[in-house]
User: Fold this.
Amino acid sequence: MLLRISHFLLPLTLLAAGCSTVSAPTGSQRLSPNNAELLARRAKIAAEPPGDYYIGRRFWLEGTNFWGFVRKPGQQWEEAKLVMLGEKLKRAPDRLPEDGPAGSRLGFDHNYEYKLHGHFSGHRVYDPNSNQILPEFVLRDYELLSTHPGFLFHPDQRFEPRRVPTIPKY
Assistant:
């Protein structure tokens, strides 16, 4: 009798376990506001029109020479590359003195988002201040998209002015 009950209970237990995976999320499974924000932005990026351009996010840290992160349209920020900007054809938007007045110096455009025209040269460039060898993006032209585009990788991520961010894997 005990054996028959266990054979009967096992399929019911498995069925109940299977049903719990399709029920409404509860507790920690609920979509937090930050995750909802992340999903909304991912959908917006996925809807970007394809084309011969890139999206760039200026990321400036005092003393470093890299420019920021660059990705293809429709590509998520987690796939972006931290780049050195080649200015053979066009100067960077913030090509200003490092010691100028606030708002008129190198890095004034930290976290601005740009539509970039150019190409990856295939060369890698050393930035001695961040001790990184990075791909070179040769800038041909740019267009400012936003001065306040929001978070870069995740809504919970905070800017640390002396630390190069790591790209999280989601």
Observations:
- The helical segments are 2-20, 33-46.
